Amino acid sequence: MIPAIAVRRLDKRFGATRVLRGVDLLVEPHERHALIGPNGAGKSTLFNLIAGAARPSAGRIELYGADITRLAPAAICRRGLARSFQTTRCFAKLSVFDNLRCAAQIANRDRMRWWQRYTTTREADEAAEAVLESVALGERRDAIAGTLSYAEQRALDLGLALASGAHTLLLDEPTAGMNRAEAARAVELIRSATAGRTLLMVEHDMDVVFGLADRISVLVQGEVIATGTPDAIRSDPAVRAAYLGDIDDVTHGAAR
Amino acid sequence: MRDEFNVHDARPVSRRAQRGRAALPWIALALLLVVPPCVSSQSWLVAWLAQTAAMIVFALSYNLLLGGAGLLSFGHAASSGVGALIAAQLFNRFGLPLPLLPLIGGIGGALFGALYGLVATRRSGTAFAMITLGIGELVAAAAWTLPDWFGGEAGVAIDRTAGLAVPGFTFGPAREAYALIALWCALAVLAMYALSRTPFMRLAHAVRDNPVRAAAIGCYPRRVRYEVVVWSSFFAGIAGTLGLINVELVSTESVGMLRSGSVLIATVIGGSGVFFGPVVGAVVLTFFSVVVASMTRAWLLYLGLFFVTVVVSSPDGIAGWIRRQAARLARDGWRVCLPWLAYRVMSACAWTLAVVLGVQWVYAQRFGTEERVSVLSTMNPVWLVAAVLCLAGIGWLTMNIAARRDRLLSAEVDAGARP
């Protein structure tokens, strides 16, 4: 089977610092894949490289077999890979609905004539409406995005990725900065929203990771030291060594 | 800033009232363009209105860049001047019908925009501003070095009556030319309003708010910026041609830095966050440059002072200020707002009088009878200083009272005393 995302021997240097050292990562279609690792392991850098926000020093990135290594972020998105951001980003002065309409409108471009960019299209509006409901922001439809609460902005960020019609999602710490209840709600949201799609996410909250992911990759000091199912990762000696036993507490916590 | 106010504005407003409020600026604009020339036929009035109409289109086209895509341009006059120049040259060569001339100018402006946009839209923010500054200077320099195209010192003149004849109109009299200008102004404002409501401009807003995020939803920020530059230059070309029809001349000044600066000032005074903001700014600017300038040579000083006052006290311009006051009125009602507003107006009047008295006295001393308002030159300086100090004192006092009421009110709102 062709992997949804294939990262092959990816290197990234910032000057003399080698942030990624020959990273290999395969994400199968329709799986929820989590990327974990201590701070500074290079997770966000890897994300930026996959999404096209930065260029790798060496190596290759494929999306369903097609090389996307040197494409612009917009071109990568148009091929069906959408991302969310670690620090929340949305279009602060537009309403929630207009935010989503922007994304839906671009996703809908193949079905539009060139001049329809200047006329309202029902298809794009309907797609935006559907996403609005699926990320549970229906009541905040006309609120200005900059005035939303933090959790709502994260939901909108996810909504933007969904509305762009992507089949593959990169989520960068989707529950960061949320309290327990908000995080639980966000996990449910991600679970339902990613049904039938491929998900690669970076996450620090181990409850979220072990609850949501089908497979987990562990990135330590720019190298993937293990990939496998949650159970396999839990009992992997190299991972345990890298996390200095932290993972024990977490998995015990999850078992409770 | 305005948006937060809307969020807190909990009082339900009926649809009809909302629509009525939305129609207000349109009615005001129509009245401004139509009524004065029907009532009076004084030549300065028509000249002022024609300049205002051209400036309205110019400022709105500028706001497509500034408000629409967040692009600060220092060379917008180049687009309008080159558009007008192309229109003038074609008009002189081929004798096109005058009513179609603004369209020609618009296309000329758009072509120029398509050219400079290739370079300028590579960057946004400060870099874009610097590139447009350079391009503006470039065109201004070209205007001086290419007298065959730009007409050198004299500029390129046209004869309004020389075009392909339109039955019933010669466009010789200023009033007929004004009718044409007003019609094109209305058309351009409507077109820009329609453009501002399109999904494309929504995307431009998205690029303005966050280009990185916009790229991540599959939009090429540079292409969007480029398209906005072309549209903006198109309408700038129309505005330039309206000016050409008004004065029958396109000169090297019309591509210069001064004009680029004045459209920026008009847009910022009016407020770039509201569609009609630049319209207000254009009216204010031409009021200063025509009406005030006809009375005193200190008009530029007054314009500068007014500009600084607006930027300091209401960064979102006059339109933003009006919007905030309207929201406040809806929240607190007339009874609370009226005294506050009265203090504010009183303070503004007192300050204005104090400044005008002082400045006019200095100008009268300096220029004597050359200055139109020269009564002041014979006035006793002691009395003058006393009057200025007195007025400034009143201004200061009322300003403080208004500010204190402001603080009290916001404290009450914070404490939840007012539902």
TrEMBL record, chain A:
Transmembrane segments: none annotated. Residues 5-246 form the ABC transporter domain. InterPro entries: AAA+_ATPase (IPR003593), ABC_AA/LPS_Transport (IPR051120), ABC_transporter-like_ATP-bd (IPR003439), BCA_ABC_TP_C (IPR032823), P-loop_NTPase (IPR027417). Keywords: ATP-binding, Cell inner membrane, Cell membrane, Membrane, Nucleotide-binding, Transport. It holds the Pfam family BCA_ABC_TP_C. SMART domains: AAA (SM00382). One of its GO terms (molecular function) is ATP binding. PANTHER family: ABC TRANSPORTER ATP-BINDING PROTEIN, CONSERVED COMPONENT OF ABC TRANSPORTER FOR NATURAL AMINO ACIDS-RELATED. This is ABC transporter ATP-binding protein.
